[in-house]
Amino acid sequence: MSSAFVSSTPPPSLAVATGKSKSAPLPPPSLQVAHHTLSERVHIPSHVYQHPAAVLLELCTSLRELHQIVPLVLKSGLYGEHLFQTKLVSLFCKYGSLAEAARVFDPINDKLDVLYHTMLKGYAKSSSLDTALSFFCRMKHDGVVPIVYNVTYLLKVCGDGANLRRGREIHGQLIVSGFGSNVFAMTGLVNMYAKCRLVKEAHKMFDRMPHRDLVSWNTIIAGYAQNCMPRVALDLVARMQVEEQQPDSITLVTLLPAVADIGSLRIGKSVHGYAIRAGFTSLVNVSTALLDMYCKCKSIDTARLIFDGIKNRTVVTWNSLIDGYCKRVDLASEIFNNLKDKKTLVSWNAMILGFAQNGRVSEALNLFCGMHSQKMKPDTFTMVSVIPAIAELSVTRHAKWIHGLAIRSCMDSDVYVMTALVDMYAKCGKVDTARKLFDMMEYRHVITWNAMIDGYGTHGLGIAAVELFKEMRKGTVRPNGITFLCVLSACSHSGLVEEGVRFFDSMKMDYNIEPSMDHYGSMVDLLGRAGRLNEAWDFIHKMPIEPGITVYGAMLGACKIHKNVELGEKAADRLFELNPEEGGYHVLLANIYATASMWDKVAKVRKVMEKGGLQKTPGCSLVELRNEVHSFYSGSTDHPQSKRIYAFLETLTDEIKAAGYVPDTHSIHDVEDDVKEQLLSSHSERLAIAFGLLNTSPGTTIHIRKNLRVCGDCHNATKYISLVTGREIIVRDMHRFHHFKDGACSCRDYW
């Protein structure tokens, strides 16, 4: 936290004397003033309130105009009049110039209570919470009796800053001041607790209210909607109508995001119908909320109809449509470009996220750079959108650049930005750097723990992942379903079967987390990789839910590793029923047959694929060199250095053979042995490795990114390449990292 916002001494406690006793704690010396009297009713002569300066103050619209009016007030000798003092304090507070407001306020001898209330509102709106609380204590010391709006201002600041400790103190003051049954004060409490994510506590405050107005209902509905409890929010809307409170436009704007979270188009249409009957659809905020709801419920055409019907579109309206079109990113880009000079930070963020989530990493980064060149400062949302895009590239230099930008932008203390950086470094092969950042964080969200555990898992450091998970369980952050998914995956990649089984059982028993399909798939993967195929198959049959693609896919992959034709066929049959258009499963089955030399069945699978128009995803490997990413496909010859690369690979293959490498050609049929070896040596990762070796100096680590799982022969060959060249080679495939060095791999041949 910046030192500019940290007081050297804590602000005064809110539990202060309310009278004028001499024993009451004094305010800081600079704040000591003459005792005020309660002369609230002051006669204002007509020449004062009819003076042109008074009229100008009433018409004032900016701080600049106010600075021009003040000399007229001074010149007219009206500065000492209560009317002008009150108006100047109010306007300076309104425009956020608290220092100037204090210069007017402090010298006044006979201060009206209303001046204190105005100053407190200004501090609450435009200063830090500690400063506002200090003034509140001074106000009470000066004998001013708090009014309900004093506590509601302070509660709002506490809620906006999620400062629960101070919020509870103000709650105490609220009770002491006799506002425990005041609807405004209690609504402020509901809002504060909801924004501090204590929604049950907020509901307790709501239930204690003797009378609830529409604002109270909207506040508690928003509390549940914004705390990921959309169904409770919907139930409350039904309850408010039973209690004869009709939803207004604010209720709908609050409710529609909850409908979007549930993804219920039926309920959304019902809310839309109510909005039409109530005449709210002419309001741009309601129409925009409806547009956003339809987008998130995947009814884009309806969203576009609503957009076309909005006459006075705001930037938020445009941004909602862009966000909705992000799955159709080209259309979103067209809308974004039409905004021209109306682009806001939200617009930029939506487009960057859209490109990143659709795998168009280069466009996301180019847009981010374009935003930077237009002097648009990124916020937290920008960073957590662009950092995963850089993680996908897996280029360390880019990772360091964005990390530096986060530091320079003072976002290195933000938990979400830091979590994204931890995840990014792990995905760029720098798991040690990721752990250093993790250890530096003062506060860690559950997603932070998940990112670090997953980072260890993908690097084959299962024991480290398990130890970190155990450390997490000892603390205050509660694991969620994703945490267990990460730790189960880590156990699977490292062969920690017994630990994984214990963690799976602990999910339901200790944390009451119902396993999802992905958890069951991870368990099948854990048992299958370890060779316990029959146990994995029994596990599938005992599942309380119908097994899905994830489960049978893990089983088929395990059968490929352990060359089990019988169970592989059974898993494949179920996969072909569930997803007949996925060619990858057919390829896996064909490879199982090929390993068992069942060439007639290989031909049969290939014929089925040809007849159904199914294709294997081509292997593609990426390597970055001098700020340019080079792509290589298996057997491709279109790279400018192709001749040099293939010639180098021939020499390199001879060298690794001399060191003990034996090509595994069992999966290739109907060609000569030398052709088999040529086919193996032209796999995309070998082309990328050869390019990296040719274009970097000795000792440089080669980083490769592959879109598919590394094949067994390439894995073996890369170990020997690292041995004969003395290079470290890091390969990130679709599942995990392989760190090759001195003839060995970090996975210990267990992957």
Automatic annotation (TrEMBL):
UniProt xrefs under InterPro entries: DYW_dom (IPR032867), E_motif (IPR046848), PPR_At4g14850-like_plant (IPR046960), PPR_rpt (IPR002885), TPR-like_helical_dom_sf (IPR011990)
Keywords: Repeat
Keyword Cell wall biogenesis/degradation among UniProt keywords: no
Residue ranges constituting the DYW domain according to the UniProt record: 660-751
Top-level taxon of origin: Eukaryota
Region of interest: Disordered: 1-28
Pfam families documented for this protein: DYW_deaminase (PF14432), E_motif (PF20431), PPR (PF01535), PPR_2 (PF13041)
Keyword hit for 4Fe-4S: no
GO MF annotations, alphabetized: RNA binding; zinc ion binding
Family: Belongs to the PPR family. PCMP-H subfamily.
Protein known as: DYW domain-containing protein
